[in-house]
Design goal:
The protein is of the alpha+beta class. The chain has eleven helices and four strands. β1 and β2 form a beta hairpin. The longest helix is centred in the N-terminal third of the chain and has 18 residues.
């Protein structure tokens, strides 16, 4: 992965006390599941790949299904949830661990804003993603505080609906609803920072400053100056990459 700050984030997690404690907790499970991994690395640091492999085999390989204890799959999901919840969140809203949703907010804000235009008849926008932005989104909006069971990896075909409504005063509000794949029969309402809905301008004010909405913004946020097109930008005036510089971008 070309995002160097994200690699530093992973490095801190991999050597930190949280993952060390989780690795110790997961050790009996990892020992029990090793014969089923077909030579795969059985370290806790590889927990997502372990779960993904077991889940695919259990779902699509009848021989594996008939011989693999279901309780081990449940434990694999439990530890994978903890692993991925730490990887794709951060202690601050604009932390690099939140990068899955930070790169997605600009598109979501634009789509919602476009729906408020009187001459726009399109009132639906669809964005397809994997599980990572779900984790980051629920974290930065504090949705997991009131609904802790949504933390971790969402099921296949999960959906978050950001519903835009207009009150009697003409103010637009946004509510968040979630359906966890086929596990849920219907959408459930989640909370934005403890609220059933928030004014659209408030949502933007809380999160717009964290967004990554351009290539140069991504390069800066990831401390990348060479790959992914970053080499075309002039970073000589960047006060973070060049601490002796007193000005920002030229």
């Amino acid at each position: 992965m070309e995002c160097e700050y994200f690699q530093l984030h992973l490095g801190r997690l991999n050597t930190g006390v949280v993952f060390q404690d989780l690795a110790a907790q997961a050790a009996p499970f990892l020992q029990a599941v090793e014969p089923y991994l077909n030579g795969m690395n059985s370290s806790f640091l590889n927990m997502w790949n372990i779960y993904d492999y077991l889940n695919v085999q259990y779902t699509h390989n009848k021989t594996f299904y008939d011989n693999f204890p279901e309780t081990l799959l449940e434990q694999a999901r439990y530890f994978a949830n903890l692993h991925e919840q730490n990887v794709f969140t951060d202690s601050v809203t604009n932390g690099v661990g939140q990068i899955p949703i930070r790169t997605l907010w600009p598109e979501l804000f634009w789509s919602l804003g476009n729906m408020t235009l009187p001459n726009n008849k399109v009132k639906l926008a669809l964005t397809e993603v994997d599980y990572k932005p779900f984790i980051s989104m629920f974290n930065v909006t504090n949705a997991t505080v009131t609904d802790p069971d949504i933390a971790g990896i969402v099921d296949y075909a999960s959906v978050v609906a950001l519903e835009l409504s207009q009150d009697a005063q003409g103010q637009y509000n946004v509510a968040m609803k979630f359906k966890n794949g086929t596990s849920d029969n219907e959408f459930r309402s989640l909370k934005f920072w403890g609220n059933d809905s928030v004014p659209f301008p408030y949502l933007i004010s809380q999160l717009d400053w964290t967004t990554i909405n351009s290539t140069i913004n991504w390069c800066f946020s990831c401390n990348q100056t060479v790959l992914r097109g970053c080499s075309v930008f002039n970073f000589s005036n960047d006060p973070f990459l060049n601490p002796t510089t007193t000005t920002g971008y030229a």
